[in-house]
Amino acid sequence: MYSPIPHNLNLYDDEFDFESNGFCPYQWEISVPQKNCIIWGVVLSYLRSADFTVPGKFEERLNRLSENAFDSELVKAAILDFNPFFNMHKCFFDETLQNINQSFRKFLNEKRPPKAPKTVPSDMQLISTLLKSNILIVDLSNKNLNLVKPSDGYSTDPAAITLFCREYSNKDAKKPIVMKRFTFSLNKDLCWELRRNAFNVILESSEVRSVAEKEIQSLTENKEKKVNILIALLKKNLTHVISELYESSYVVSKLADAGFETDPRVVDSEGFSALYYALQSGNNSLVYTLYRYAANNCYETESTFRDPNPSIISNLAKLKEIIQGDCSKSNDFERFGEKAEQVRVTYRDLLRFNEFLIQVSQSINEIREIPEDTSVKRAEKQKEIISIILENYDAFYSAEQIDSQSIDEEEPIENYKKHKAYYDNLDFTVALLFFDNIILLKSVLKSPRQHFYSDLECSFLLSAVTNKYFADNTVKGIKMPDLGYEMDSPIFSIIPLLERLNLRERAKNFCKILREKKLVEEDVDYCLPQQENNEKLRYIQELKDEYWISRLDHYMKTALEITPDDVKQKFVIQRALQVTGESISVKEEDSPSIRHLLRKCLPAHVLDALKKARNALSHLKSFQFPLKFETEKDDCLFASIQSEIRSIREASGKILDIQRFRFMEFLITRGLESVQRYESMEIHPLVQPIENLREKLRRNISQMESEILDQKELDGNFFVPNIEEFHRRLMGHPSKSVKKTILEEIPLEVRTRMEANHKLLDDLDRGVALDSDRFESLFLKNKDLNNIKEEYKGYLQEEEESTADPCRRSKRSSMVQRIQKSPNPLLTLDLIFEKRKVSDSQLRTLYEAIPFSDKTKSSLESLIEISQNPCGDNLSNLLNRVDYLYDISINERSDVRFLWERAKSSKAKQHLVDKIVQRYFREPPFQLAIEMLLFDCVEIVKNKEDFNRFWLKHSYLFNGIDLRNVLDFADPLVESIGNVLDPKDLPSELVKKMLHLFEDRECIETLRELWQKEKCSDHSAEWYKLKERIVCCPRWEQYCKLFAGDPKDSEICEAVISFLKNVTEPKRSKKY
Asked: How far apart (Å, rounded) are the C-alpha atoms in residues 496 and 470?
């Protein structure tokens, strides 16, 4: 099926009198399924073209179709809901319309004369007579019109039905057969209303709807054709509207379905494409936005130039012709007056960029077609792809097709600023292609030398970051005029330019080593080398620091902007706590980092509390999740934690300022170090101002660091009792009052014995001679007590006989260790309080030594039960988190819920992902809440190897990495590169995993129900009804592994899995 197509029927028969026959010559062709296409076309055309403003008119038509077999109001609602300009497939899944279709087909068969041949002309005549309506058949193959009138000559609804007929060859048959396919059409006026309705629904939540809607008002005279809304908006110079529209390829494609032209390649009546008008606007960012949309074939398929195929290559060649055509038709853009010269520069740059993509795409596509029957050949192909990308980068490095060195020597900064859009887009695209493919190379080819891969990765990242960093008037919060500099100063252009030159040199060296390497079997690797993975950004600590501090600031700031009065906000605070704890987790022996300075801003007890809270949140066991769920109900606790996070942020506030200056100083220093390498370039007059700026930055950094290091008595500044309380609850430790109640029941006699034991150990360790009666204070059985007394007597006797026996000290140490390991009531209580395992002998000694009350004994027993059998209901835990994820990401937004319930096509599903990701960026609290809940899902299933593949990343950048590690420990390289090159890449992957969990929810819930029935030994017939709801999920076996953590349940688990594996997949019912 395809989108509606406008037709001018005058072209098929210029003598046909449309007006007298009641037809409109301007129609929009509507596609229907091939099966029963005539019936579908007749039913939809006949009913939808009815005049609903005239009472009884629709009911009269429905009666002729179905002989009063259906509720007219129900059918009317279904027909009015039908809008092929918004959703061309929906009506064919509507049960009411399906039933009408079947009913009319049956009615037609009954009315067909006995033994009469079933032919298209005879059926058309019969339909026309039964419905008392003229039928106009547009034969697109022969380009003519055929009018069918009722055989009795009576027609109450002239021109009610227009059908289009196409001929095609059935290639599936043994002999090719010419087949006919019918579609129907609606007139331009009705279609315009449908198009407007579709337009409003598509842009329902868009900020640009009001502006765009005003523009289409003036286009109503073009009802009979596709309106080029893109060019219309460009002519009005509404560039901001276009930029927002093209943020979502789905929205743009839906507008195209609604009859609004959005393809930048399509020309207007003057013969110019949208790219021509975008060039006229002077907005280079918009030019490249539209170019990329066009270069990716307007996302008609999943293929893009990041994963090229012949269709993409052919499209790039077509784009070249279109761009050149715009130039030729406009006589080299002479219409643009004063703008013409700058437009010509952008035009030539765009053409050169397009040529770069053609060269790279053709080469990659050719390489991928080479057979790879050995591991060496597979590695050779990946090596060749990376080499081609980098070699083409070198070839197209300069904007103009002359020797790049002459440009660099002539006017390097002016050239860089003049062609900035070209350089930005070339570097950006090469970085994307490089990072899309480098992980594939690393997984098959061992590094030829140490840090071979990570050095170039860092160069790409530094070049991208530097370019982005010096992009506007404020550099990461530093107002440059405050330092005595304006951002248009040449010194800020030279720094990204130098980093770009560094990247080029490193890429050339990388290619040279790759080319010289003749691959043999020993060079082949079969997985991503862990060493390379661990050494990302190995020597650029400043990049890591920039990532960690920016991340910390973002999460703490977000946690302080919300009001923790609902559970979603509590997820935000938890995630902020987790990230804060991770940010201060740095050891003294680690490389110098601003995180060491961050630790010096906070008291030791605060650091300890943050570390414990982070570890608890990141390593929850199944039995702890219900404790967490219960804690999330405490509004007061989280409000207090929020206040403590505010104190932490205030105490560490200077760190953010220091990092801003440190990172800028780092980038400037790298630029100065690069100056010596490019002595031929005319940049040395700029060196002194850059050095002056660096000195100012260093003085600021030194002063701020001194203020932090000079702080005294940090420990008394503030406390975080609520974070400590949060940790206690997560761990399941008893509260202070419970501990106090239990400890108060310890008799003075036991405390006295404990003190005597401590003194005994101390004296024994120091070699003080002891009276054997002192051992009576130990909590030992008589036999063990007598043994240690005898051992000590033997030790004393040996001491009298010799003063230099080295074995004597060893024996004393052995006795000290035995005593330390002996039952100790207070130590046993500490183990119980900390949820650690307690032996039976330790418990016996505890209860023998301390006569606890029944109430206290019951409290202890409940604590011991959890510590001895820490198993929880994994399925229930997972459902809890999935349900909150669903409420937050789907239920809170009606437009997202609409998409979730109706999205069937891959484009619609991708748009759903895009909508959620859009909210991820626009609403930081939403981002943190989603991350916390997804992290909990990771924790619940983390010990199940079956889920390893589930959490692997499948999109372009860093394909194959484990998303669990990104959520847990974060990854400076992955997230830094993602933020610069493709900010939506990582969030999109997280959202897709979340949507998979939603798809699996019914399976998870049913498995839990089945598990509970099995545990209760309920083998009723209902047990079998649950099967179908489980096995339809592709991951049902993985979820079965979550049944329980108790080894005693393993047999039941295996029995359930065995039962489910015997289920036959149910037959799927036909949709229509």
From this structure: 8
